[in-house]
Automatic annotation (TrEMBL):
Residues 89-236 form the EngC GTPase domain. Its main location: cytoplasm. PROSITE patterns: ENGC_GTPASE, G_CP. One of several proteins that assist in the late maturation steps of the functional core of the 30S ribosomal subunit. Helps release RbfA from mature subunits. May play a role in the assembly of ribosomal proteins into the subunit. Circularly permuted GTPase that catalyzes slow GTP hydrolysis, GTPase activity is stimulated by the 30S ribosomal subunit. It is an enzyme of class 3 (hydrolase). Keywords: Cytoplasm, GTP-binding, Hydrolase, Metal-binding, Nucleotide-binding, Ribosome biogenesis, RNA-binding, rRNA-binding, Zinc. This is Small ribosomal subunit biogenesis GTPase RsgA. It is found in: Cytoplasm. Zn(2+) binds at residues 262, 267, 269, 275. Belongs to the TRAFAC class YlqF/YawG GTPase family. RsgA subfamily.
């Protein structure tokens, strides 16, 4: 049985790189070998390691027999499909790429990606600001400082000028990193800087599967200089998967020391009396915008739960 690394998957056809040789195989999942993933929009994702058998008739084609155990997986809730979607597997860093402007800085999007990182065991988060050459407004600097204060990695780069890129490459050495960001923040430009020629390869694959110019509709793993990078589709909205409206507060790490002091163990930090989290917000110990971000996400998760369970 051969073993390999899933680089990407389109229409249930997966590009698998064989261990040892680096040979690429076009594989399908054999029968119901991944039926344990019922309800998942996609049972395999870039970064997954699998066992497969080569097709004895067609060269470089095969069937996936088994998915090896994952260290972790990065998921979102696919609002269109109404199902969890695995964007990447076996990652070390989840990188949320933003810009100070063009498109506007959106801290609530960052907060949701950070929630996903908290839900991904063994994964660290990096808030990465691109387009530093445009200037960094005071409100953006304040928010980045807040992320540093509560324990997240924060870096600023400019793909255009090259500032911060060598240090970023050094930071990523030996890791599998996943890039997440909204359209327009420079994710494709960063990918092409980290992996020269990546854009051309994505375009070729896109044309092969008749996907037109939408070259970032699917996650894709690339081998960079000493590390692996998984590019994910640019999205407008992001809903993390793996928590509930009642538990998502534990994913806001600065809430934890205060949540333990709430009068009620199941406190939702909303209308309950003697809520230590709300008191911390009022006293300026918890950032009010982060608290508002929590309330918005909690409300959206509650609506999704009502749709699912009635």
């Amino acid at each position: 049985m051969r073993r390999g690394l899933v680089l990407m998957g389109i229409n249930n056809i997966f590009t698998v790189e064989e261990e040892g040789t680096g040979a690429l195989y076009e594989c399908r999942i054999k029968g119901k070998v991944l039926e344990d993933a019922v309800g998942d929009y996609n049972p395999l994702a870039p970064g997954d390691r699998v066992e497969f058998e080569e097709n004895p008739i067609e060269e470089h084609k095969g069937s996936i027999e088994r998915r090896l155990e994952r260290k972790n997986a990065f998921l979102r809730y696919n609002l269109k499909r109404k199902a969890p979607q695995t964007l990447a597997a076996n990652l070390d860093f989840l990188v949320c790429l933003m810009s100070p402007d063009q498109p506007p800085f959106r801290p609530r999007f960052i907060d949701r990606v950070l929630v996903a990182a908290e839900l991904t065991e063994g994964c660290e988060a990096l808030v990465l600001l691109n387009k530093k050459d445009l200037g960094v407004p005071p409100h953006v600097e304040r928010r980045l400082s807040l992320y540093t204060e509560i324990g997240y990695h924060v870096r600023m780069i400019s793909v255009k000028t090259g500032e911060g890129i060598p240090a970023l490459v050094e930071f990523f050495q030996g890791k599998t990193v996943v890039l997440v960001g909204q359209s327009g923040v420079g994710k494709s430009s960063l990918l092409n800087t980290l992996v020269p020629g990546a854009g051309q390869r994505v375009g070729e694959i896109s044309r092969k599967y008749n996907r037109g110019s939408h070259v970032t509709n699917y996650s894709r793993l690339f081998h960079a200089r000493g590390f692996e990078v998984i590019d994910t589709p640019g999205v407008r909205e992001f809903v993390p998967y793996g928590t509930s409206s009642r538990d998502v507060g534990w994913c806001f790490r600065e809430f934890e020391p205060y949540a333990k002091e709430c009068a009620y163990p199941s406190c939702q930090h909303m209308d309950e009396p003697d809520c230590a989290v709300k008191e911390a917000v009022m006293k300026g110990r918890i950032d009010p915008e982060r608290y508002e971000s929590y309330l918005r996400l909690r409300e959206e998760l509650e609506l999704l739960e009502q749709e699912e369970y009635g």
